[in-house]
Structure formats: structure tokens, C-alpha cells
Amino acid sequence: MCPSTTPDLASITDLDLRRHQLDNGLRVNLQPDHTLPLVAVNLWYHVGSKNERPGRTGFAHLFEHMLFQGSEHVPDNQHFQHVQKVGGVVNGSTWFDRTNYYETLPAGALDLALWLESDRMGFLLPGIDSEKLENQRSVVMNERRQRTDNRPYGRAFERLQELLWPPGHPYSWPVIGTMEDIAAATLEDVQAFFSTYYLPNNAVLTLCGDFDPDRALEQVERFFGPLASGPTPPPVVADTLPMESPRTIQVEDDVQLSRVYLGFRAPAYGDRSWYAGDLLATALGSGKSSPLYQRLVYERQLAQDVAAYILPLEIATTFYVIATCRPGVDPKELEEELLAELDRAAAGKLAPEHLERARNRTLVSHYQGLQTIEDRADRLSEMTTYFDAPERAMEEHRRYLELESQDLAGFARQFLQRHQRVSVTYLPRSKSNAEAVADEGAAR
User: Fold this and answer.
1) CB under 8 Å to 254, separation ≥6 — which residues?
2) How many Cβ atoms are within 10 Å of 100's Cβ, its own excluded?
């Protein structure tokens, strides 16, 4: 694996950042860093699972796989091989709001990475056929079985999202899609999805590392400039109103211990209150000195583990609190204690030391995320995609420094009330049900 750059901490928030936009709409960030002879290439497409629709879910994730299957000028699976031959690493990922592809290579191989990414952007469709689609469909379906369907607690977050958002809401289905929709995807569907979203005017390209900015921009123009833009993809709008009554379910599964999942709707990433929610989640549930851990694991001995966090989503988001019961503990008692801690936070009873500990942990994480060229490139692409402001990557820490105890309490009062919750409780399967499942499996 390639090493990462580690610039002086004092320089992290004062980077030499240069922005450009090509005539076809591709936004480009250039951030030179000559610490090591490496370059990180990071490409974000502003398309994720939220851009799908019921009956056609899983396309964004399926496309992440398809883009490594070869394009018009790059034979099947050669993208990985080209990068690995020069000592680089390459991968991609899919999320609710975006899909990204990234490489880290020796600085002298920048041309190679730009050519590979531009060929996928401009010439993927001629390389797609039914055989490749069927191959990757099988890969994705097996991935879903391994990571979700056949894994303990595997569908917990899917169930939370389904309950938290109304039917048809773009965050109500899983990023990986449903088995039925993955199986039903056609070549025509895939081609239409690519033509709608995989456009230079719907993408952000970021380069971080050892390069000359002027020459790098010439290379970007050479490879990406000739690619045609297209119509701006339609925006996704959805209901983000607060919930008026709680929704709770219990799920029996092949698990050893009961687990309680709580979910709450919250404002979108970028809203000032989102940062209050992020800091509150860190204060309440991050680390063994946090109030949730101290109260539920050490003092009451109700939980084996506990955590809280908030997702950085574009339309609206979810605040999660999750705890696993100790053997013999009633999950209803554990849930009541979780809600009581949220009540205390809403009442402004979070101790000052927990706020400062959370702020320090958050700032450390922020600075660490800017130290490597890979993570820095990803943050610059993220801030450009969501806010058209890559400089926010260096300024995020200020939003946490501005927050006080009353901001965290206000977030809890507004968004973490008991009647606003979704609760999914996983229970070990009862003996009679377990025997019935075993019998059914034997019959098959």
C-alpha cells in the first residue's frame, strides 16, 4: 500500500488550493503537496441511492461495480491492473448522495489515472454488455447476502430507515438496493442511469499531491475537456418534517443478545444544528468515558456496548443511538435508560467536561482527515459536491468551536424527543421459531 503524506499540522488549514471549471462543467480542485512523490486522484459523481426510485433501487451501487468492468479503450478488469502495475491503489464507494472513485499512485503516473477516469466517464457505454451486467449483478447479490441478509443484525439499519422515512422517500431504501430490484435491472436501465448522471457537469475531480498545478490542469483539460456535458440531473426533493408519533418494532433473529436501535430525523449536513447533533452524539456515546457508556455499561450494567452518531446526509439526516443488552437484560429497560439520557441532554444536563472532550475528539478527527493526501482529496471533493465550496474542508473545525452547551441541548429538545423516535429491537429467536426455521431449511 502506498504511504501517505503528513504535512505540518500548522499548514493543514492553510492549503495551496486552486479551483477551476472546465467548459463542460467539470469542477476541478488542485492541491499540490510535495512532501512525498505521490498523487491522489479523487472523482465524485453527485449521484447515489437517493437518485433511484422504488422498483429500481441499487443502481448507483451496481454502477460502482460496472465501472471496473472495462470501457471502450480499457479491456475487462484492466483498470485495477494498470494502477497496480505502477504500484498504486484504486477503489470506489457508494453512498446515499454520491459515488466516488479514487486512486493513489506515484506522481509520475498521474497521466495514467486521468486517462483511466476520463475513459470511464466518456466511453463506458460501448464497453457494457449483458454478460458484464449479469456478472456484476451476481457479485452485488452475493455482497448483499454476506453483508446484510445472512449477517446478525444485518437488516437493522434498513428497517430503521424504512420506519423513519415515508414510503418513496429517497432515504427509505438501502444503498445496496433490494434483491428484487437488483435482479430486475436491465441493460437499458443501466445505460439510461449512466447517461443521466455520469456527466462531467455532475462530477468533481480533485488532485492532491506532488504535481505542478499548471501542468496538471493541462493534463485534466487534455483528458476530460473533450467530453460532452449533458442536461443537469433533476434535483431530489423530499419530505423532512418531524415525526409526530413514535414507531417501534421488534425483530426476532438468529442473534445471541438483544440490541436496541433508536433513530431520529434531523437537519441536513451543513445546517448549523447538524454540527450540534454531531457534537452531541460524540459527547454522549463516543468512548468509554462518555455518559452513555458510563451509565449503561459501568454503573447500571445493562449494556455490553453503546454508541451514538449522526449521518452526514444531503436532504435530511438520521441521529442514531445503539446499545447491545447484557445477557438477561430486558431491552425495554435498556431503551428507557437510553431515552432518559437523551432527556437529560435536552434539559441541559450534559457536563461541561463531556462537551470539551467531544470537541477535542472532533477536532483531532478533523485534523487527521486533512493529513493524508487521500483523505484530503476526498474532503475537498465532498465539500465541492455538496456546497460548491472546497475551502470548507479546511474550515469545518470552526463550526464546532462556535457551539456551546445550549446549542447541544437545543438540538436534543428539538429533534430527540421520545415521540419523534423510531425504535427497532432485535431479540434472540425463540426456541419454537428457531426450530421452525430449521425445519423449513431442512425441507428445502
Assistant:
1) 152, 428, 429, 434, 437
2) 23
3-state secondary structure of 395: helix
Listed residue (316, 302, 311) closest to 260, CA to CA:
302
Whether the per-residue pLDDT at 7 is higher than 50: the answer is no
Predicted pLDDT at 71? 85
What whole-number distance in Å separates Cα of residue 106 and Cα of residue 11? 23
3-state SS class at 161: helix
Reported confidence tier of residue 75, pLDDT bands at 50, 70, 90: confident
102's enclosing H/E stretch is strand 99-106
Distance CA 62, CA 407 (A): 40
d(CA 21, CA 28): 6
For the chain, percent helix, then strand, then coil, each to nearest 5? 50, 20, 35
Asked if residues 191 and 127 have their Cβ atoms less than 8 Å apart, the reply is: no
Give the dihedral sign, CA 390/394/398/400. Answer: positive
347 class by beta-carbon count within 10 Å (0-12 exposed, 13-18 middle, 19+ buried): exposed
Q: Which of 362, 391, 387, 364 is nearest to 376 (CA)?
A: 391
Place of cell 452526514: 312
- CA pair distance 207, 127, nearest whole angstrom: 26
Whether the per-residue pLDDT at 441 is higher than 80: the answer is: no
**Contact between 88 and 114 (Cβ < 8 Å):** no
Predicted local distance difference test score (pLDDT) of residue 15: 80
> 10 Å Cβ neighbour count for 189?
15
